[in-house]
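Bench log. Compound arrived from synthesis this morning; before running ITC I wanted a structural hypothesis for how pyridoxal-5'-phosphate sits in the protein. Inputs:
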Amino acid sequence: MEDRIFLSSPHLSDEGYEMEYIKEAFDTNWIAPLGKNVDEFEKEFAVKVGSKSAAALSSGTAAIHLALKAAGVEKNDIVFCQSLTFSATANPIIYQNAIPVFIDSDYTTWNMCPNALEEAFEKYPEVKAVIVVHLYGLSADMDQIMEICRKHNVVVIEDAAESLGTYYKGQHTGTFGDYGIFSFNGNKIITTSGGGMLVSKNEERIAKARFWATQSRDQARHYQHSELGFNYRMSNIVAGIGRGQLKILDERVAKKKYIFDFYQRGLGNLEDVEFMPKNELDEPNYWLSSMTVMGKVRPSDIFSALEAENIESRPVWKPMHLQPYFEKYTFVGEGVSEKLFENGVCLPSDTKMTDTDLKRVVETIKELWNK
Ligand SMILES: *Cc1c(COP(=O)(O)O)cnc(C)c1O
């Protein structure tokens, strides 16, 4: 059996940047939570994405949770949430005892459909916040979404967990809304083994998020708490990995694009295959190369054929409104997210893949069309 090809696995820098920062933390005996790596990672990250301030946290999920809290989302508040996403986008709405209303995607972005969003505002004008996702590194239609949300004066949270390195009209995704969140989970474009970042133009809100994330300890010598706290901070070791990974983000984006272009050349002409959309405003990070197949070869045929060759692949995210846990909540849209789920294939997009690996994937899939 040939070596396994992964969907997207951790890829440390060839230069060993991560270890330098970790070593520094060890040498100064400062592996405790917080410390220089955390402070510097926040600053370097904010500069990289062009945001005013950033809070390094234990996960992307924690960042969404604190963004909702910072947005003032409380019990029984309504939050609009893109349906086509990973459950981590929606779970924190429930942590806050708020009520999600799931919004459909469109075919031009695979992300939140502005028309469905407008329709949701008509039904629920009292909505407190909107969570828009930039799936697979494709930017949502931020011009339209921001215009609609500003008109209704509602807080916008961008889930950019999959889109670090993606630009929309030359600006980093995650910096259009009031809050942006990023993830450094093991499968993301850069990783710290696990972690997240909350960014905002509003420095005061970010300072507040850091306060909540460190158990809401008041300024007092004794342990005093006037607010509910969370243990959501990133550790100084983890932040060291993040500083190292940030240095090679552009390299990783370039490789992801190379992978996408390779697949598009190899598979783009097959009957009924369409690659994920890219409009002229969007400069994706191509986190996962994805496509839809609408003909007689089904996604399940592709998953099975690849698995038989020891190659990992996945369906597109199953929409939240189809999830047993979330199906009781309202969905607004026309079922585009369902179609993308039924017909979608995420191809292996591991940045350690060689051309030989890529050819192995392409040939395995092409064979299904020759049967
Ligand atoms: C990975 C991911 C998250 C959660 O990030 P964690 O760091 O794993 O908590 C949230 N949203 C989306 C869309 C993701 O892909």
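What the model suggests: The longest helix spans residues 249-267. DSSP finds twelve helices and 15 strands in the chain.
ITC booked for Thursday regardless.
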